[in-house]
Amino acid sequence: MFKDKNPPKAITRPQDLPGWKAPAPGVGDQVERIAQPVAKVIDKVLGTNVQQCGGCKRRRDYLNKKFSKRDS
Q1: Residue 63 within a domain
Q2: 41 is a domain residue
Q3: What residues make up the domain containing 50?
Q4: What is the mean pLDDT of each run of 10 residues along the chain (72 residues)?
Q5: Three-class SS of the chain
Q6: Alpha carbon of 56 to those of 16, 21, 62, 68: distances in Å?
Q7: Could you tell me if residue 4 is inside a domain?
Q8: Residue 72 lies in a domain
Q9: Which of 7, 33, 47, 49 lies 20 to 30 Å from 17 when distance is taken between CA atoms?
Q10: What is the pLDDT of residue 18?
Q11: What are phi and psi of 40, to 5 degrees?
């Protein structure tokens, strides 16, 4: 049977698509970069689970929607 010597690679991630551009980080993403390490320290010191509470995701989504890069 026919065998191709150079079979195409399977596309498994959006980054592998030709012409893909990474989304610009919004204000919420920038705040999250600061808040997550702080939450990690709080969790380690106090034995809590602040990092996984869901509030950070809601805040990130709200700030990204409210202050999107496209508006500026």
Answers
A1: yes
A2: yes
A3: 24-67
A4: 72 78 84 91 91 88 82 46
A5: CCCCCCCCCCCCCHHHCCCCCCCCCCHHHHHHHHHHHHHHHHHHHHCCCHHHCCHHHHHHHHHHHHCCHHHC
A6: 29, 25, 10, 17
A7: no
A8: no
A9: 33
A10: 79
A11: -65, -40
Pull the structure tokens for residue 36: 């997550």
Whether the full predicted model's pTM is greater than 0.85, yes or no, is no
Residue type, 42: I
Phi and psi, residue 24, nearest 5°: -70, 135
Q: For the beta carbon of residue 26, count every other beta carbon within 10 angstroms.
A: 19
The vertex-30 CA angle with 45 and 70, nearest 5°, equals 160
The number of domains in the chain is 1
